[in-house]
Amino acid sequence: MAPSNTDPATANAPTPLADWSIDGTRAFMDAVTHAGWERWAPDNAGDMALRVVVKSCPRPEADVISDVESYLEGFLGSAETMWEEPELLHNIHGHPLHDLYDEQMRDLVQKRSRIDQAASELGLTPPRSVPDLADYLVAAGVLCRTITDGTTFLVPAWPVLPPEDRFTLTDEELQTEDAARRQERYDATVDRITDLFDPDGNRKTTITTSLQNLAAAAETHLDEVRLAILTFQNTELFATDPTIATIAADATFQLTIRWETFERTR
């Protein structure tokens, strides 16, 4: 029996998803990704969201939490902490990962600290356990809680609001989010464009082409290709004619790929 009443934590809590079809739940998962919640929630947030919708009907919160904890038990050897303390992580030889992978560990510590601040703004303590993760996603408006016959269910929220609508982001963070969303928007098109450079073979550095030809190769429209190139010029993946923003569809130009950027980012 589907939940019939909601128990929002705040007066402006999002509405539980009504469309439990495959298209509806896929749209929810896409919205979670595109809004940036994998960057603005603790690790395993995407896994929890997926387990909420995996059976295409509301699931008891206890079952969802149990599933995520079981996964962590196998992956980390413990379900006690959902966000393993990176300062304490070691490899199988006992070497501190924080020394071996200093940059990655520093990024992880920085992300954890920033999300702790966001949790505080949402009225929560720093999220460390799987139940904490559920509380965070509900407070952030990614999930909703509903209650039926005394059982609490976790269900998708709809629409999924971006992080900046739930807590305060700095101007720099907003700019970073905007750039990340633009890149995600054009990722598939860029993958098809980079295929023209034969990344698994000869690895051409430059090709002579046109927006018309690129659109045909990428199976998309001209504006999509133009905006994809402009977006990824900013990441230094591509270099091309400075008139790309206004160049005619059939005009030829040279498009150059920077393989060092490709290796680092793709």
Task: List the topology elements.
Blueprint: E1 5-6, E2 15-16, H1 22-35, H2 45-53, E3 59-60, H3 61-76, H4 97-100, H5 102-121, H6 130-139, E4 143-148, E5 151-158, H7 171-195, E6 206-210, H8 211-218, H9 222-233, E7 238-240, E8 252-257, H10 259-265
Antiparallel strand pairs: 1-4, 2-5, 3-5, 4-5, 6-8, 7-8
Helix pairs in contact: 1-2, 2-3, 7-9, 8-9
Give an overview in words:
It is a single chain. This protein is of the alpha+beta class. The chain has two domains: 161 residues, no CATH class; 95 residues, Arc Repressor Mutant, subunit A (Orthogonal Bundle). 47% of the residues lie in helices and 13% in strands. The chain has ten helices and eight strands. Strands 1, 2, 3, 4 and 5 form a five-stranded antiparallel β-sheet that branches. Strand 4 and strand 5 form a beta hairpin. Helix 7 packs across helix 9. The relative contact order is 0.12.
Indicate the proportion of strand residues: 5-15%
Structural class: alpha+beta
Mean pLDDT score: 86
Anisotropy-based shape = globular
Count of DSSP strands? 8
Uncertain stretches: 1-11
Distance between the termini: 44 Å
Tell me the Rg in angstroms. 22 Å
Helix proportion: 40-55%
How many DSSP H or I helices?
10
Topology order in helix (H) and strand (E) letters: EEHHEHHHHEEHEHHEEH
Whole-number count of domains: 2
- Major beta-sheet overview: 5 strands, antiparallel
